[in-house]
Amino acid sequence: MIKFLHKLGPGLLFAGAAIGVSHLVQSTKAGSNFGFGLLWALLLINLIKYPFFQYGPRYASATGENLLEGYKKLGEWTLRIYAILTLTTMFTIQTAVTIVTAGIASSLFGIELSSELWAVIILGFCFLLLSVGKYNLLDKMMKVIIILLSISTLLAVGIAFNNSSGEIPWTQVFPTSNVEVIFLIAFMGWMPAPLDVSIWHSLWAVEKQKTTDVFNKKSALLDFNIGYFSTIILGLCFLFLGGLVMYGSGKSFSDNGGEFSLQLIDMYTKNLGDWSFIIIGVAAFTTMFSTTLTTLDASPRAMNKTMELILEKKLKNGYNAWLILLIMGTVIIFFFFLSDMGSLIKIATILSFLTAPFYALMNYLLLCSKHTPKVWQPSKNMHILSIFGILFLVGFNIWYFTIL
Fold it and tell me: How far is the CA of 96 from the CAs of 75, 256, 321, 343, in angstroms?
């Protein structure tokens, strides 16, 4: 078992980045507001995004290169578009995940500090971890965190179903009002994660290849599938929890980070008992902390690699420079622009959904090109699913703009 866990890596890092705001916040709110009515949206968007996420580790394992190096072979313009898109989203994404982490930390540790100060403390600690531990630390931490979260969440869902006395509607619904549609877009935007995480995954897969010589096609896809299907199962769990505990109660989840975290932890303890407060609080905090840590690592890593490929030279302290810039930008947003969790998450998730067609198309074109060995190229079914997915994402974007 230990040997098997050692082989896993990038897939669990993907799960660590994905299982955060999309699950703890968006999925529970979906259950709270619609019961089990948005089950179709959760399953559909995971199916739609599956091939495009899989193409990250597939390409890395096939070529020993990350997706950004592949993008350059398609044309340098793709890297320039990626750089622009990342600059428009990286700060709001980092702020969104950090504010949830800060809210949970405030509730768990009981230290009366503002969300802004908690954010500075968390970001500073993440900076130290990334400066010292780098990939290996991320790899080891994520295995413990995902196992802890999975056990506690599955246990909570089982008890919630057993204790539930009300009728939760299974009838699937399609939101009609503007407010509901915007929530649907936001929900699907980060479920299970933004599509640019496929690029992060390819970077982590290349790093993993440096630490093990047993990372062939079979093990790479198994690693990915374990991480990906873990995010689907836990997404369903949080949706069920939101529906079982909050739907029809007359209550709704707060947009304030601190209040939301208390509601979230209470949702678990209500089913498991007061004894579980610390266990669940630690699980929720480690989940969001892992998301904060992985996003803080990935964006600077990706932007540094992008600039190296565009400038065609190695940047000595590029990663650290982007890391510091991301932390500064996040803190500035916290202190001077917007600190409301609901608004930040809405902005970040919608931006992610609107940029999804670009990443879907680039990943598909790269995997079908001469730059990917034939044996690693998509199967017929994956071709069909990819084309359908691209059309769906483009169509959904067009529809969204028509109702604004």
Answer: 32, 12, 21, 9
Count other C-beta atoms under 10 Å from residue 124's C-beta: 12
Given a contact cutoff of 8 angstroms between Cβ atoms, the answer to whether 68 and 199 are in contact is: yes
CB 104 within 8 A of CB 284: yes
- Cβ atoms of 224 and 12 within 8 Å: the answer is no
- Residues of the chain below pLDDT 50: 1-6
Of the candidates 4, 230, 5, 190, the residue with the CA atom closest to the CA atom of residue 100:
190
The CA-to-CA distance between both ends of the chain, in Å, stands at 51
Task: Delineate the domains of the chain, giving CATH numbers in brackets.
Answer: 2-403 (1.20.1740.10)
User: Nearest Cα to 370, choosing from 67, 74, 53, 1?
Assistant: 74
DSSP letters spanning 99-126: HHHHHHHHHHH-----HHHHHHHHHHHH
Res 5: pLDDT:
46
Q: Counting runs of H as helices and runs of E as strands, what totals does the chain give?
A: 16, 0
Using CA atoms, how far apart are residues 245 and 164, in angstroms rounded to an integer? Answer: 8
**Residue range 66-123, pLDDT digits in tens:** 999 999 999 999 999 999 989 888 888 898 888 888 888 887 777 778 778 888 999 9
Q: Which amino acid is at 200?
A: W
With tokens 């403390």, the residue in question is 121
Please give the Cα distance from 268 to 250 (Å, whole number).
Answer: 18
| pLDDT at residue 341, as a whole number | 59
Residue 193 to residues 26, 143, 300, Cα–Cα distance (Å): 11, 19, 18
What b-and-e string marks burial along 135-156, b requiring 16 or more CB atoms within 10 Å of the CB? beebbebbbebbeebbebbebb
- φ, ψ of residue 38 to 5 degrees: the values are -105, 20
Distance of CA 140 to the CA centre of its chain: 18
CA 153 – CA 18 distance, rounded (Å): 15
Radius of gyration of the chain (CA): 20
Q: What is the pLDDT of residue 289?
A: 84
What's the CA gap between 288 and 271, in Å, rounded? 21
Q: Cα dihedral sign for 274, 279, 281, 283?
A: negative
The pLDDT score that the predictor gives to residue 109 is 78
Nearest to 187 by CA among 403, 330, 404, 400: 400
